[in-house]
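task queued by scheduler; priority normal; single chain, no ligands, no partner chains; default sampling; output format set to structure tokens
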Amino acid sequence: MELTKMIEMALRVPSLMGFERYLVDYWLFYDKFHIQLLFRFDNDYGALVIRGPNIYGGEMGLFSLAVVHFQSSRVFRLVYDTPVADDVIGYLNGDEILELLTQIQKLPPREL
């Protein structure tokens, strides 16, 4: 099965709305319940999206999202000072993930 379709099924959304182009890494574990997606946008912000038993809402099959900022092509850190989020956001469904990805993508580049 194509990766994009697998992720759409996991998020329970009909389309990734073009966000698949920003997916820089992913982990889909054998049991199909554990998923980690890492997105990076042109503004050097991104998101780490996780579903698993030890995250907020994981026991209900929901997701958590953390806003990240990339320092280099593969080095990033969680950030807690954006208008999108000041902490990890849990208990999210697929549609809410796509809305947050849209907001993160629109953030202005971070001042260093």
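post-processing summary
- The beta strands are 23-28, 35-40, 45-51, 63-70, 76-78, 89-92.
- The chain has a mean pLDDT of 89.
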